[in-house]
């Protein structure tokens, strides 16, 4: 009898925690239904068939990226709208990550020019929000700016804050109905890190700019992720969200079976941490990857054949 009573209490506690997690997610991201796991796709190859399969696997949103400085091209606009249409066909909202790929300004040391570039970028964000707001989980500002590869000036320490301050000032001046997260850091903010220094300056001056801090905890343990979540909440008074995490099916990771095991364990761990939003990288292997590691993060092969990681994810995501 005692054992049965404890089991009932444990089950009740799990239901309460699950409900709390769903409540937190729905309050922060109104367009995100109960479950909080999504997966990244590439707009160039994302189809309605992919969307249906993603939904069936238990994912509740997709993440894809848009380049702000390509949005004036008609062909690119169609590519973006087609990706949104594919997501909508399966009822999947979108975490939209937006960044620029061209130089922000010819003279990155000029604060006035960085400010103008930030204002222009904010205008692009506002345009996307107006067009697709009904389908957006959130707009994510940038992707891994703390890596030189993804920050156009290659000098994060001196140019990130002026640019993003202008972005945030502009966004705060307009009515935003879509949640905004940022800044997709490659590494979780820690005490004294460049991302923490930048966030302290931006968030303190523009406290209504961001609804959450996003980062990519590649290689981090559950304890390290938990500590990162606590650090973000305590220092910036905002929740942390995981906008990208994955594991490549390299032989050093145990191949496709090792990838499956790690994906399964990650989902189990993150569920326990009640993180409002988590996006896994990625749906299909990437032909454009620069090396074997980069090419093999997909839950499917490039031609759409499922890897064991797909079933591992679906098993955990569809579990009550």
Automatic annotation (TrEMBL):
Annotated signal sequence range: 1-25
Domain of life: Bacteria
Molecular function via GO: hydrolase activity, acting on glycosyl bonds
Name this polypeptide is given: Glycoside hydrolase family 5 domain-containing protein
Organism in which the protein naturally occurs: Pseudomonas fluorescens
Family: Belongs to the glycosyl hydrolase 5 (cellulase A) family.
Keyword tags: Glycosidase, Hydrolase, Signal
Gene3D superfamilies assigned to the protein according to its UniProt record, in alphabetical order: Glycosidases
Cross-referenced SUPFAM superfamilies: (Trans)glycosidases
InterPro entries given in the database record: GH, Glyco_hydro_5
Cross-referenced Pfam families: Cellulase
Sequence ranges assigned to domain Glycoside hydrolase family in this UniProt record: 46-255
Keyword match Hydrolase: yes
């Amino acid at each position: 009898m005692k054992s049965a009573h404890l089991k009932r209490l444990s089950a009740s506690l799990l239901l309460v925690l699950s409900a709390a997690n769903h409540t937190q997610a729905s309050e922060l991201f109104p367009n995100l239904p109960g479950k909080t796991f999504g997966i990244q796709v590439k707009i160039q190859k994302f189809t309605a068939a992919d969307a249906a399969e993603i939904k069936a696997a238990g994912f509740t949103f997709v993440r894809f990226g848009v380049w702000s400085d390509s949005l004036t091209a008609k062909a690119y606009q169609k590519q973006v709208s087609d990706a949104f249409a594919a997501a909508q066909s399966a009822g999947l909202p979108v975490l939209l990550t937006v960044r620029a790929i061209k130089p922000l300004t010819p003279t990155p040391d000029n604060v006035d020019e960085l400010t103008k570039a930030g204002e222009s970028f904010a205008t692009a964000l506002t345009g996307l929000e107006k067009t697709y707001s009904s389908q957006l989980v959130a707009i994510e500002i940038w992707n891994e700016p703390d890596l030189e590869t993804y920050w156009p000036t290659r000098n994060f320490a001196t140019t990130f804050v002026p640019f993003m301050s202008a972005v945030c000032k502009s966004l705060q001046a307009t009515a935003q109905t879509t949640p905004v997260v940022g800044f997709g850091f490659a590494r979780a903010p820690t005490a004294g890190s460049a991302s923490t220094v930048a966030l302290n300056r931006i968030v303190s001056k523009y406290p209504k700019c961001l609804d959450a801090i996003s980062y990519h905890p590649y290689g981090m343990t559950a304890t390290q992720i938990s500590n990162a979540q606590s650090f973000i909440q305590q220092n910036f008074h905002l929740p942390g969200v995981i906008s990208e995490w994955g594991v490549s099916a390299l032989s050093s990771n145990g191949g496709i079976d090792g990838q499956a095991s790690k994906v399964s364990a990650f989902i189990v761990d993150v569920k326990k941490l009640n993180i409002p939003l988590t996006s896994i990288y990625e749906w299909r292997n990437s032909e454009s990857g620069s090396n074997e590691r980069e090419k093999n993060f997909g839950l499917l092969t490039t031609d759409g054949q499922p890897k064991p990681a797909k079933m591992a994810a679906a098993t955990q995501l569809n579990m009550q």
